[in-house]
C-alpha cells in the first residue's frame, strides 16, 4: 500500500539520488517506482522532462519548483 507516500505538489528534493533518474510519464508511475524500492525515502518527478529521481533521504525541506511534484514516506 503506497498510501504512506505523502505528495508535495510543485516541489523538488535536490540531491541524495538513488542511482540514475528514470523516464516515467506520470507522477503515479514515479510514486510506484519509489514504493517498490525499499531504500527509497522520497522522490521527485519533473513533468516537463518526465524524469523520476528516487531519493535515499531528504536532508532539507526541499524547494519550490513549478515543473516538479515530489513525495516522501510519511
Automatic annotation (TrEMBL):
Pfam families: PAN_4 (PF14295). Keywords: Disulfide bond, Repeat. It comes from the Eukaryota. The keyword Repeat applies. SMART domains: APPLE (SM00223). Residues 7-74 form the Apple domain. The keyword Disulfide bond applies. SUPFAM superfamilies: Hairpin loop containing domain-like (SSF57414). One of its GO terms (cellular component) is extracellular region. Residues 52-74 are annotated as: Disordered. GO terms for biological process: proteolysis. This is Apple domain-containing protein.
